[in-house]
Amino acid sequence: MIEYLKMTVxxxxxxxxxxxxIGPVYPPGTKSSTMLERFAGMFHxxxxxxxxxxxxxxxxxxxxxxxxxxxxxxxxKLHGVFTHTRNAGSGDVATFDEAVKPxxxxxxxxxxxxxxxxxxxxTGDARKYxxxxxxMFPDIPLVxxxxxxxxWDKDMLEFLKTLSISMSTVDGPEIESLPPGGATFxxxxxxxxxxxxxxxxxxDGAEERYRYKYKRSELExxxxxxxxxxxxxxxxxxxxxxxxxxxxxxxxxxxxEMLREVLPGSIPPAGKFRPNEIEQTSLF
Length: 284
Hints:
Blueprint: E1 8-14, H1 35-40, E2 45-48, H2 64-68, E3 73-77, H3 80-83, H4 90-99, H5 101-106, E4 109-115, H6 124-136, E5 142-145, H7 154-162, E6 165-167, E7 169-171, E8 190-194, H8 206-209, H9 216-229, E9 235-240, H10 247-262
Parallel strand pairs: 1-2, 1-9, 2-3, 3-4, 4-5, 5-6, 7-8, 8-9
């Protein structure tokens, strides 16, 4: 029998503020101003995606601890100036570090997520930039998601490990230039991002790219990857990014139930903030 580390698997989604989730996920009539509270009543982890498009204001997360009960783990995605134009300066760094202080103070902050585009290949200059990025955030956990297969080699895994950068496991369609589907681990926290497997529409824009609902058999395959990761890490984050039509939280909930069967005790217990009045029947 395999003995797993004392581990916790946090399951959540990328983003929570989607009007199309009203009905499939949030009860009819849900106001935008209450979506965060309702989300915190269902999941233990949240990846903030909006900060990729718009840098956080100083007070963006000021009320998050109270609104989430101070328990839900939160990952903050870095702005595109860090990953796409790659011309971020000290002011950009200070903007993020100042904004996340309320989450750091409550222990809710997990890491920054740097999602690089498919055009960012594993080259000498690219590796130098990764080193530069880590120098920008020397004392803060950093997860990198690469979307080109060239980053998957043993030397690169060792390179990231020496920098204490976590390399995200990426689940997507089987397209030649995209990352392979195996579990990837360099350091804590172990991180898994699930984008759906919409091969036919992958290059048709974000809305179509992520319009996908995982089948039970596919979730079972992802569960096997998570089982490998918990042998190496005591904290594993599983984030569903297939947000259109509410598929991300629906799949996340299915995955939580599967984890409870296979890895009992890995999911955090329901926190005191989880309000009973939140209707979740649409998720089951």
